[in-house]
């Protein structure tokens, strides 16, 4: 195990370390919302702090599990398939990250294989390596349908992880894609995990969860991005009651329970969520700006329909390019760690910078590329 962890690469951090040494650098690298946690949520936390701060149930506070269900039920269709969703199907975790770790640790044996989209959020690979699993990355969709490669890998794997809308491309699954993926995993008997931490930030269409079409599936969510609460570390997973018993054991071993005060603040955030609409409209304006400017530069990229990332091809080695661009005043994340098809792509985050900063960063990019 020690060797396994020692081998892991945490290389993207190199970018933020280098960028933080350049005072005027425009930060389009980090996935941190530019909004601070709304004041009414902080106020609620202050108020609750005067009350007893004890352990909570390992599953999390009942009221938070109820609030998470209320949030899920606002989606077009709620997964897992066949479930009449209730608080007993929710386990609260320390961010979506711990939910994902608990799933890997309790559902996969060493050497089991997980199939990931290409590109995908890099920590899926890290978690799978820490847990001793094998992973394979393939392009899930082409021309609106599941690729033959994805079908083969789903059949051949114990678990498939999808993220909608995605980090790093901003793609949000269409209803057809969600249905096809969900049904395919269902027919193949492969566990489907859908990471939906960005589902409140879908811009031009509805959010569709593939779990609605798959019985053996799990939804992962959190307050981190939707409510600008990344540091509060509250997330959850939604699954059938039986596997939740196993996830509980992993949580017992890792954390005991998520911090109570942060759970209380999260209940308030979910039930008093007008701020989310405001954030979505600000992100949408930034998405429109970035979309227009990248098109003017004739860069090859897909318009993000959700999340707050865009992933253009810059036609150069992504590491060399990003390290060089920090010197010129804009920080972006190299595409290479996201997957084999992304060696010349870069990830820009429009969640963390306002329109003026985005324009300044894109001016520098334009000077370099056009
Ligand atoms: C796709 C994706 N999933 C999960 C997470 C982590 O969420 P949390 O902060 O709730 O652990 C992130 C954070 O960047 C993410 O981009």
Structure explained in plain terms:
The protein has 370 residues and is of the alpha/beta class. It has two domains: 124 residues, Aspartate Aminotransferase, domain 1; 219 residues, Aspartate Aminotransferase, domain 2 (3-Layer(aba) Sandwich), CATH 3.40.640.10. 42% of the residues lie in helices and 14% in strands. It contains 13 helices and 14 strands. The strands form four sheets. A seven-stranded mixed sheet has the order 2-10-9-8-7-3-4, with helices on both faces. Strands 11-14-13 form a three-stranded antiparallel sheet. Strand 7, helix 8 and strand 8 form a beta-alpha-beta unit. Helix 4 packs parallel to helix 10 and helix 5 crosses helix 6. It starts with a helix and ends with a helix. The relative contact order is 0.19. The model has no long low-confidence stretch (mean pLDDT 95). Pyridoxal-5'-phosphate binds next to helix 5.
A few lines on this structure:
The protein has 370 residues and is an alpha/beta fold. Helices cover 42% and strands 14% of the residues. Pyridoxal-5'-phosphate (PLP) is lined by residues 31, 95-97, 121, 163, 167, 195, 197, 222, 224, 230, 235.
